[in-house]
């Protein structure tokens, strides 16, 4: 990208310098200010006329480029720690009979390199389901254990893996309305690592949400509101700040309105995760 700046006309500069030179000689002859002082003022004037200026329009362009670069850096760094969660389902065809298929149902993110993954409890709540997680590079791990906390709608799942890349948790109490927010998730259960960006639209919201018609509604307190687009399949994925830390766990969107989605604050997860890592189970 080229940045265009106004050109300084050489004739104008030369005309100014010529005039000052004439006045300089005239004053020197008449016993005025010493020549070396006029030379100093002349050099400063020439420098101020010829040096490059920064204008508001250019500043805005720089800010946009910096903001885009920051988002790209976060996505490149965090994506390998975000997983798609799939479940095996038995489908029946009249001609071929029953068959086993896999369907994407949600998102999770790695919080410990030994294979500890966080998601929403409603994503992995089917006790009869056979779940697995898929990394960005396509590597698949079977879920070994599931630990649910239905009160917070959070879950910790375990897979047998080592040296996995992790995401760090931010202090969600320090969130400010208006700051940037980036969501990564398995949108619609089939578009892996979809990225959307927006801002923190509100904090401390209270909402009631359900996963569909006939399902039990859940009440959420102190959740984060964002205008980063979320879709079915994003549940359990991370909401990130510009430093790449998790500020929230995406949980719900509003199908009847545009750009209104919600995430559970990272500080809600922290005590659950700390006790789990210490005790091997979720303790309230």
Automatic annotation (TrEMBL):
Signal peptide: none annotated. InterPro entries: Chloro_Bact_Ser_Proteases (IPR051201), Peptidase_S1_PA (IPR009003), Peptidase_S1C (IPR001940). GO terms for biological process: proteolysis. Keywords: Hydrolase, Protease. One of its GO terms (molecular function) is serine-type endopeptidase activity. This is Trypsin-like serine protease. The lineage of its organism: Bacteria, Katanobacteria.
């Amino acid at each position: 990208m080229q940045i265009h700046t106004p050109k300084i006309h050489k004739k104008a500069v030369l005309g100014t310098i010529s005039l000052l030179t004439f006045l300089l000689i005239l004053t020197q002859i008449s016993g005025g200010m010493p020549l070396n002082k006029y030379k100093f003022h002349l050099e400063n004037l020439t420098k101020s006329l010829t040096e490059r200026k920064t204008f508001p329009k250019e500043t805005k362009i720089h800010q946009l480029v910096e903001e885009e670069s920051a988002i790209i850096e976060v996505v490149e760094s965090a994506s390998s720690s975000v997983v798609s969660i799939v479940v095996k389902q038995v489908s029946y065809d009249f001609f071929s009979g029953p068959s086993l298929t896999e369907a994407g149902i949600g998102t999770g993110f790695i919080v410990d390199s030994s294979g500890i993954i966080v998601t929403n409890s409603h994503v992995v709540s089917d006790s009869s389901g056979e779940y697995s997680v898929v990394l960005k590079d396509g590597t698949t791990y079977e879920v070994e254990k599931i630990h649910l906390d239905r009160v917070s709608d959070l879950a910790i799942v375990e897979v047998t893996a080592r040296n996995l890349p992790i995401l760090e948790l931010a202090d969600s109490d320090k969130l400010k309305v208006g700051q940037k927010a980036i969501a990564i998730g398995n949108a619609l259960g089939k578009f892996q690592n979809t990225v959307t960006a927006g801002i923190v639209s509100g904090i401390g919201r209270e909402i009631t949400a359900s996963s569909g018609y006939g399902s039990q509604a859940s009440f959420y307190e102190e959740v984060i509101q964002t205008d980063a687009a979320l879709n079915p399949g994003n549940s359990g994925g991370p909401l990130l700040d510009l430093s790449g830390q998790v500020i929230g766990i995406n949980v719900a969107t509003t199908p009847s309105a545009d750009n209104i989605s919600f995430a559970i604050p990272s500080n809600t997860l922290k005590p659950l995760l700390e006790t789990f890592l210490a005790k091997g189970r979720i303790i309230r």
